[in-house]
Amino acid sequence: MKALFSFFTVALLFVSNAAWAGDFAVAVGFRSNSADADVSGYTITSKTGYGLGAIGFFDVGNQLQVRSGFLYNQRNYTLTQTGVPDKDLNMSYVDIPVTAMYKFADYAGAFAGPVFGLLASKECKASGGCSSVENPSSMVVGFQMGASFKFAPQMGGEIYYEIIPTKFWKNLAENARTVGANFLITFE
Predict the structure, then answer these.
(1) Which fold has domain 2-187?
(2) Fewer beta carbons under 10 A from the terminal one: N or C of the chain?
(3) E strands, the chain, where?
(4) Backbone dihedral angles phi then psi of residue 8, each to the nearest 5 degrees
(5) What is the pLDDT of residue 157?
(6) Which DSSP letter does residue 19 get?
(7) What is the mean pLDDT of residues 82-106?
C-alpha cells in the first residue's frame, strides 16, 4: 500500500510539472540486470527485466536539461549454488531519475546523475522455498549514465548503464548493475 501511495504521489507531482517540460515522453524498455552474491559459494546470474513510465526533459540552460520522471522497472536475478535449487529474486521498483542532460544536438544528448528507487513489489521463488531470505531494500539509490536521441520528430530512444553500489537484498545480493534501453514516444 505504501508503495502504491508513493507511486501515485510521484505520478501526480510529475504530471503537474509536465507542462513545464521541454519534452515529455512515454517510455517502454528492457534491461539486463546483474549483481554480486553476498553469500559465499553462491553466484548470481543476470536476467532480463522490463520497464514502463514517463520521462520529462526540463530546460535549464541553452544546452542543459534536467531529465526526470518515474519508471516502473523490474530487477530480476537468479541466485545459484551447486546442489541447491536456484532462487529467483524478482523485484519491481518505481525509479525516479534526476539526471542532468547535455544536449550536443537538437535530437541527441548525454545524461548522468542519481536514480532513486522505491520498492513496489518483491518475490522470491525456489523449489525448496525462500524462508531464510531477508527482504530487499525498500529504497535504493543508484547512479545512471547514458544517451538519449530522437530518430523521428515524436519517437526516440535511450541507452543507459546503471549501478547500485550497495547491498540491496539483505544477506543475498549487492552491487547491482544494469544495461538498458528505452523506446520513447515524445510530446512537445
Answers:
(1) Porin (2.40.160)
(2) N
(3) 23-37, 43-59, 64-81, 84-105, 108-125, 139-152, 155-169, 173-187
(4) -70, -30
(5) 96
(6) G
(7) 90
Q: SS3 of 5, please?
A: helix
Joined together, the cell numbers standing for residue 165 give 553500489
Q: The whole model's pTM is what?
A: 0.83
User: Could you read off the pLDDT of 122-176 as tens digits, one per residue?
Assistant: 888 877 677 555 678 889 999 999 999 999 989 999 999 999 988 887 777 889 9
Domain ranges of the chain: 2-187
User: What does each C-alpha distance from 6 to 94, 103, 120, 121 come to in angstroms?
Assistant: 9, 31, 9, 13
Please state, in angstroms and rounded to a whole number, the distance separating the CA atoms of residues 41 and 47. Answer: 20
- Can you read off the three cell numbers belonging to residue 6? 508513493
Position 113: which residue type? Answer: G
Q: Please give the grid coordinates belonging to residue 29.
A: 524498455
Cell representation of residue 133: 531470505
Three-class DSSP category at 106 = coil
How many whole angstroms separate alpha carbon 98 and alpha carbon 111? Answer: 10
One-letter amino acid at 180 equals: G
